[in-house]
Amino acid sequence: MERSIITRAKTAELAVEEALKLLAVSRESVQIEILEPGGRGVLGLGTRLAVVKVTVIDSGSASASQSAGSREIAVPTAETVHENTETQIETIPASNHASEEQGGIGIHNGRFHIQATGTRLPLLTPPPGAVLYRNGTQVDGKVSVAPGDELELETAPKVEASIWRIEIDEACLRAELHVRPGFERQFTLLDCKPQENLVVPVSERRTFLPIPQAEVAGRLKELGVIYGIRAEAIKQACNSEEPGVFLIAEGSPAVEGANGTFSTNFETETKRLSPQSREDGTIDYREIVEFPTVIEGQVLVRTLPARPGRPGRDLLNRPIQPRVVQSMELAAGEGVSITEDGRRAVAIRSGMPRMKHQGFRVHLSVLPKLSHRGDVDLKSGNIRFRGDVEISGGVQNGMNVEAIGSINIRGPIGSATIEAAYSLIASGNLIGAHVSVGKRSEFFNQVEPLLLEIASQTQLLQSAIEQLGQTAAFKLNDIQQTGLGALLSVLLRGKFKALHVVLTRFTEQAAKNEAQLDVDWKDYAQRLKYGFLDLRQGGLRDSAELDAFRRRTLELAESVSGPEDRLIFAELQYVQNSHVYCGGNVRAAKGAYNAMIYCQGELEAGGTLRGGVYFAGRGIAVKEVGAPGGVATKLQVPETAVIRATRVMEGTVVQIGHRSFQFVEAASNVHARLGSSGELLLF
Question: Where does the record place the RNA-binding protein KhpB N-terminal domain (predicted)?
Fold first, then answer.
């Protein structure tokens, strides 16, 4: 069989040498034919490869036509495309039935043996992780090899250095060592039989390279870490053969303390009870609210002291301070005494407890409770009491009952005046009465911002007077003899006009609500009037009196600030020809006739509202409203509230905001509200 091969290279000589190498023959035993001489490319750009055909001379074989049954097999070389080296093998079989001989590559005693006696060259794949050279060039992937190639496995130890870093958290309390261990790897060839496609078998010896602990310690020092270092964790991390994250230093966080707390020894809320059924089947609506009470000597509140925290330290050995804790402060109002250690508040009289909790201050007082047996009439006289009032009978025509607290009246109320600061429970009917509930709280809401402004302005006024006292033109002796009256008159008309306006507004509000004010408020209003506004008596004497007035202003502002601890409401039965005002919710269990009820909360009527005007700030829910004869009845709420009625008679007017509607015929299950565009919706 005649063997021939076609090769390409930069020059014809290089192509011939490559062909001789692949055929494993000498130049004397071949016939060489130059098919392309090579040279410069078109227009002198690039180069053209030289192409040669080398045929082995075989004297014992008949000459065969090169065009019959020939095929070319591409053989990649170590040169890149830029090296412009490409080899093709062309084999011309003696006949179509001849079989091809097989080549192979094997390993014996650590050396490669290549056989290529047939038309196919063996293929070689380097072992993963190891470095294999062919004729001095590293083999990166699967390649073909030929007899004469020099193959060599790099057996020198290969070092893969360890990689590590230290990370510190933002709070500087944790230092973590991130480790990828290093190894020294060495490969040795393993013997194997010849194969056409050989993945080089090797044995690997891997030696672990620990991280020097001194280097880690040095890096910690560079980072400033000197506290909480965990030597054992560093040793474990440096000797770990698996990648991982190790906590090598940890600070001590601050241990937070606890603020002072308090516990109460009485009911803090008014209990609402369900109406009770009598033996005759009727409902008793009188006992539906139970007010909390305390007795003399009862401990009202106990405080638990604050528990300070414990400082910590970060990795840089800097102290970490815990949050500052605060203790509870007990303040005693009327009817309350504070023990010497300041940790207990004790009732010094029986009555209703009142507590205001604002921040870390708890203000406690005990309001006395007046129990009146029988009716309020000409014999008993009017009742005006600073505390709660309970009347076992009724209130007759022309009588007044006023309480800076809550009122509970078990009998009927005639054409009388009832004023309660917090709540009213009337178990009998109201006929021709005038009722006001919660106006005192309304006064507090109005004056609280005024008090705060007065305190702020008087502090500035005090500073201004002290600065004037340091000037040469200021006659201190005149102030000591006549007081601050003249100076205050000048300042309130000039730089402190705003203070004069606020003082006047407070005086007006106090005059309007004089009947609702206790002695403390009346004394303050009197001091304000004659200390700043009516200066005929000289006003305040000196700066010390001005400072005392400012402190008293702050005390009163604090007493009315924060959430109110008692509900404002009115629980009524039947209301006829009466005027009722309430700062909270109103419930008329049996309805009303020709009445005027105004409440800032919700109005609920379990019976019928016939005639009159009824306004509720948060909505109205009524069983029946109006009368068949078209008695004028009006229900009114703000824009954001709704009106619900099970039955509405003709002639009834419902008004929501500025939108109103009058029913011309009776309707059931009415729900009225404003739509998104402000239109009145009835459904």
Answer: 6-57
Whether residue 598 contacts residue 578, with contact meaning beta carbons closer than 8 Å, is answered with no
Contact 626, 648 (CB under 8 A): yes
CA 407/CA 399 separation, integer angstroms: 15
Rounded to 5°, the CA angle 50-53-56 comes to 145
Q: How many CB atoms lie within 10 A of CB 89?
A: 20
- The label of the residue with tokens 């093998």 reads 89
Contact 558, 542 (CB under 8 A): no
- The β-bridge partners of 303 are 262
Per-residue b or e along 542-571, where b marks 16 or more CB atoms closer than 10 Å to that residue's CB: ebeebeebbebbbebbbbbeeebebbbbbb
pLDDT tens digit sequence for 102-111: 568 999 888 9
Transcribe 229-256 into DSSP letters: B-HHHHHHHHT-SS-EEEEEEE-B--B-
**324-334 burial, b if ≥16 CB within 10 A, otherwise e?**
ebeebebbbbb
Q: Name the residue among 673, 587, 664 with its Cα closest to residue 626.
A: 664
Give the tens place of pLDDT for each residue, 551-567.
Answer: 889 888 876 664 455 78
What are the tokens at 263?
């516990």
Task: For residue 222, give the nearest of 314, 312, 316 by alpha carbon.
Answer: 316
| pLDDT tens digit sequence for 120-165 | 788 889 988 889 999 999 998 888 888 888 999 998 888 889 999 9
Contact status, residue 71 vs residue 90, Cβ threshold 8 Å: yes
pLDDT band at 61 (very low <50, low <70, confident <90, very high): very low
Whether residue 641 contacts residue 619, with contact meaning beta carbons closer than 8 Å, is answered with yes
Percent of the chain with pLDDT over 90: 44
Residue pair 18/32 in contact by the 8 Å Cβ criterion: no
Question: What residues are paired with 365 via a beta bridge?
Answer: 354
| Single-letter amino acid code for the residue at 295 | I
- HSE (side-chain half, CA atoms, 13 Å) at 578: 29
Give the 3-state secondary structure percentages of the chain, helix then strand then coil, rounded to 5. 20, 40, 40
